[in-house]
């Protein structure tokens, strides 16, 4: 049901692409926390074999650090909040605490349809670190005047990584699923000190504050305008 | 209607010693016109040594069955008391093999049936076949997996059936006739009726409403019907004992564990369970 509501963005993307370029795009890129904005963009294109899709998860401090939100890229199959899907979990089946600089991707599970699309190979999934997302957010703001949400900045980062590897005239659609206005506090904490000697310390402090403020994380990557849409049962 | 449903239940139930321990208990209770008292104890809160002491104290206090909680990180059917209990248990590293060892040590001196009570993921990650085998070997009688509806039960129930471990299912005030039929076709051992539309330890249920539902369920299955969620006082337990085959008390027990850290926790819980057992057992004879 949630997917069907979210597909508004996918249908609109088809219409706009036809109008703007007279064909479907070559790539769709969207961030994946719980996965709603991504499934909404992807779903209307699933039968279009020429359209490749990339879901972008939060690598947080890096996949090897263990502090991330990349259920599909680095998780295992488990049963969590009523569905069987890829989750971040211990060997004994306890759900791990996720980490991402973006509240919407700071979630240890993912909608099961993404797990299916991962296993069938229809959609490929990759992960982008906090630092890469921050850099992409800055790039998009400086070049296009668009302040994307930190969640969406993960998709932007993946697109920036992808674009140089593709032929000219390849069309990539990036889903800017939310606005960065809501992230100004986080951005200020991370960017203001970027060039100062205290950068590392400030980053750690802000990271700890963010983790403490949202131990439960949000359920849906697309719910960035209401970042505490659905907290986990633990709270 | 009743004889037909009884046939279904009888055919569905695997014959084995483990299920028999549950069946024997309910037969004994029925013969004495008493309801069963079923306390819930979270394994590993505050640690597994105390859990073993609590199990023994519960048996000594008159528990007829015991639900042994398997802690889970995201216990979505539990209220704050049991959530904190699970957090304490997990902080101590409580996990499956050690929980089953505690059951085995308890089973060495007691025949009180033990129902593992938990969430799907720890059971699924342990592995259904391994779980059934090890649980059976340790003396577990039943398993209640709160977030595994009958539609998904094929993942673990065949292994449990083969091992003679009863898979207990939940019904709720929102379960309509079609839903009840689907759940009851899968149910083993007894049926757990969730008396409220809420989490464990929430507001006390309305006994009259619960009674209406329990009577209905009893016409649909030959299995005993236990009632739980929100029962915390002897008066409430006694009122429930007049309408149900068993009364489950959980959060009130773990609340005591939380407030009595240290040595007196076993004595405090034992005394409370004694009062509750007395209320349940005497309810129909007062």
Word description of this protein:
- The complex is a heterodimer of chains A (235) and B (286).
- Helix content of chain A is 38%, strand content 14%.
- Chain A has nine helices and six strands, in the order H-H-E-H-E-H-E-E-H-E-H-H-E-H-H.
- In chain A, the strands form two sheets. A four-stranded parallel β-sheet of chain A has the order 5-2-1-6, with helices on both faces. A two-stranded antiparallel sheet of chain A has the order 3-4.
- In chain A, strand 3 and strand 4 form a beta hairpin.
- In chain A, helix 2 packs across helix 3 and helix 6 crosses helix 7.
- Chain B has 286 residues and is of the alpha/beta class.
- Chain B has 13 helices and eight strands.
- Chain B has an eight-stranded parallel barrel with strand order 1-2-3-4-5-6-7-8, surrounded by ten helices.
- In chain B, helix 4 crosses helix 12 and helix 7 runs parallel beside helix 8.
- The longest helix of chain B has 18 residues.
- Classes of the chains: A alpha/beta (235), B alpha/beta (286).
């Amino acid at each position: 049901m949630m997917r069907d509501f979210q597909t508004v963005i996918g249908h609109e993307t088809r219409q706009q692409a036809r109008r703007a370029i007279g064909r479907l795009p070559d790539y769709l890129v969207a961030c994946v926390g719980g996965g709603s904005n991504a499934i909404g963009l992807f779903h209307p294109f699933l039968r279009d074999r020429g359209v490749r899709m990339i879901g972008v998860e939060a690598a947080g401090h890096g996949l090897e650090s263990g502090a991330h939100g990349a259920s599909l890229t680095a998780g295992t199959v488990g049963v969590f909040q009523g569905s069987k899907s890829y989750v971040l979990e211990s060997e004994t089946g306890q759900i791990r605490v996720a980490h991402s600089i973006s509240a919407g991707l700071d979630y240890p599970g993912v909608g099961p349809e993404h797990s299916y699309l991962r296993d069938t190979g229809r959609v490929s999934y990759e992960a982008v670190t906090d630092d890469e997302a921050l850099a992409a957010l800055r790039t998009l703001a400086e070049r296009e005047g668009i302040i994307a949400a930190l969640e969406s900045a993960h998709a932007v980062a993946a697109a920036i990584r992808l674009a140089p590897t593709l032929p000219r005239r390849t069309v990539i659609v990036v889903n800017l699923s939310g606005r960065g206005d809501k992230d100004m506090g986080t951005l200020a904490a991370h960017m203001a000190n970027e060039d100062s000697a205290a950068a590392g310390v400030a980053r750690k402090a802000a990271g700890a504050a963010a983790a403490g403020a949202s131990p439960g994380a949000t359920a849906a990557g697309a719910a960035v305008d209401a970042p505490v849409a659905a907290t986990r049962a633990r709270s | 209607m009743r004889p037909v449903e009884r046939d279904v239940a009888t055919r569905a139930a695997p014959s084995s010693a483990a299920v028999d321990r549950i069946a024997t208990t309910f037969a004994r209770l029925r013969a004495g016109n008493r309801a069963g008292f079923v306390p819930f104890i979270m394994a590993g809160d505050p640690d597994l040594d105390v859990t073993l002491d609590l199990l023994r104290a519960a048996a000594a206090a008159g528990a007829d069955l015991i639900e042994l909680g398997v802690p889970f990180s995201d216990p979505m059917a539990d209220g704050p008391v049991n959530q904190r209990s699970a957090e304490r248990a997990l902080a101590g590293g409580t996990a499956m093999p050690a929980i089953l060892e505690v059951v085995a040590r308890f089973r060495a001196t007691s025949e009180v049936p033990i129902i593992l009570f938990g969430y799907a993921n720890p059971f699924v990650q342990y592995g259904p076949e391994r779980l059934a085998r090890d649980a059976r070997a340790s003396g577990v009688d039943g398993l209640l997996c709160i977030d595994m509806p009958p539609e998904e039960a094929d993942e673990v129930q065949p292994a449990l059936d083969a091992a003679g471990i009863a898979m207990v299912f939940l019904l709720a005030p929102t379960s309509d006739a079609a839903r009840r039929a689907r759940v009851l076709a899968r149910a083993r051992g007894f049926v757990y009726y969730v008396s409220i539309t809420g989490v464990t330890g929430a507001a006390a249920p309305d006994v009259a409403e619960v009674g209406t539902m329990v009577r209905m369920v009893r016409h649909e299955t030959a299995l005993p019907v236990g009632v739980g969620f929100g029962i915390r006082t002897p008066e409430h337990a006694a009122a429930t004992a007049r309408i149900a085959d068993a009364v489950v008390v959980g959060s009130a027990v773990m609340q005591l564990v939380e407030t009595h850290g240290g040595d007196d926790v076993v004595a405090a819980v034992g005394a409370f369970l004694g009062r509750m057992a007395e209320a349940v057992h005497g309810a129909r004879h007062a």
